[in-house]
Design goal:
The chain is of the alpha/beta class. It has helices at about 15-25, 60-65, 130-145, 160-175, 190-195, 215-220, 280-285, 305-310, 315-330, 335-360, and strands at about 30-40, 45-50, 50-55, 75-80, 85-95, 100-105, 110-115, 120-125, 150-155, 180, 205, 245-250, 255-260. The chain is globular. It binds guanosine-5'-diphosphate (GDP) and zinc ion (ZN).
Length: about 350
């Protein structure tokens, strides 16, 4: 973040109606609001209207009983008090609009890597490790957290324009209308297009294997070598927090980028995810479905369902596929349709909570 302009308004940091209405609903509006912009080992750096603070969470009361997911993460909006000019105390985390999670193989616990990201760029380099199925796995991760995915194809200096065009049409065949931005940080192609894609006040992250060029791209966007570590001294004299795992930057055009060197952490190498190649496999099976427009949900003569029944297709894989498809459809819904759906869900939650209370009393 730019230290010269300490004063910001919250909208410039990505704040908006969603967070404001939750702040009111949860009756937290007597607190100051700030965004977590860096995560250290035992502290956070947060930024609010008055500037930046080194922040800690309130010990016992509020966070004691919570699961790991409830702890603040980079990108979170938190409510704070400000005991002095440099330090803040975090009292709670506002509900997240989107979330990027790390899953563990145990499936029981997951950890939030970053929150409130609007768009995740899934980046692959077009040379040797290029793989269409890998996009899919990252899309699942993004869509799981309600984040819109987009594709960056990097290192296009290594292939011909014809090859690039064929890669782009392959992607379109497979994934439809996803946004694709071809780039090269070496010969500086596509960087302007990427920059133009980024909107003021929106938050972005880059997902991709190590070596595809994430750091190079972020550095290009920043226009200077990224400062990976920054020293924060604070009065308590308990040392300096210098190593961050994640940090957020505001670019010159007002877009916000989460720099996350540890994206490998998202757990995609974990074989328990079990969705590698799921679309490809199901596509292949669906050629034998009775109906050409088969949704593979309950149609008679569905080859996909038959494969699940006969255990030729892993049931978890199939369920993942269905889930992903629903999420893709949800993203394609109109705002009105979404609101209707969310309204219904809200009612459902209220009803369930009511029943729970009755049950308890
Ligand atoms: P990260 O691990 O995803 O952050 O990848 P890096 O940004 O560290 O880049 C990995 C390597 O790829 C470095 O040697 C970069 O110089 C190189 N690289 C990055 N972008 C490009 C590009 O557009 N074209 C080519 N040919 N190499 C690139
Ligand atoms: Zn079918």
């Amino acid at each position: 973040m730019d230290n010269d302009s300490k004063k910001t308004n919250l909208e410039d940091l990505g704040y908006g109606a969603f967070f404001e209405s939750n702040l009111k609903r949860l009756e937290l509006d007597s607190y100051l609001v700030a965004r977590v912009i860096a995560e250290y080992k035992e502290a956070y750096r947060v930024r609010g209207v008055a500037g930046e603070y080194l922040a800690k969470i309130t010990g016992k009361q509020m966070f004691a009983a919570l699961s790991r997911e409830d702890y603040p993460a980079v990108g979170d909006w938190v409510v704070i008090t400000e005991p002095d000019e440099e330090r803040a105390v975090i009292h709670g985390v506002l509900p997240r609009k989107t979330v990027l999670r790390r899953r563990y193989s145990s499936k029981q616990e997951s950890q939030v890597i970053a929150a409130n990201i609007d768009v995740a760029f899934v980046i692959e380099s077009v040379d040797r490790d290029y793989n269409l199925n890998r996009f899919e796995r990252y899309f699942v991760l993004a869509k799981d957290g309600n984040i819109k995915p987009a594709i960056v194809l990097n290192k296009i200096d290594l292939i011909s324009d014809t090859e690039l065009a064929s890669k782009i049409s392959q992607i379109k065949d497979r994934f439809g209308g996803i946004d694709i931005i071809p780039t090269s940080t070496i010969v500086e192609r596509g960087l302007y297009e990427l920059m133009r894609y980024l909107t003021r006040g929106k938050t972005y992250c880059f997902l991709g294997s190590s070596g595809v060029g994430k750091s190079s791209l972020i550095n290009k966007l920043l226009g200077k070598p990224a400062i990976k570590t920054r020293e924060i001294s604070h009065r308590t004299g308990r040392g300096k927090h210098t190593t961050t795992s994640r940090e957020m930057y505001v670019l010159e055009n007002g877009a916000i980028v989460v720099d996350n060197p540890g994206m490998r952490e998202v757990g995609l190498t974990d074989s328990s995810v079990g969705i590698e190649n799921v679309f490809g496999e199901i596509d292949a099976l669906s050629r034998n479905c009775k109906y050409a427009d088969c949704m593979h949900m309950h149609e008679p003569g569905c080859a996909v369902l038959n494969a699940v029944k006969s255990k030729k297709l892993d049931e978890d894989k199939y369920l993942n596929y269905v889930k992903l498809k629903k999420e893709v459809e949800y993203h394609g819904m109109t705002e009105l349709e979404k609101r209707r759906k969310d309204h219904k869900f809200g009612k459902f939650v209220k009803k369930s909570l009511g029943q729970l209370k009755e049950h308890e009393s």
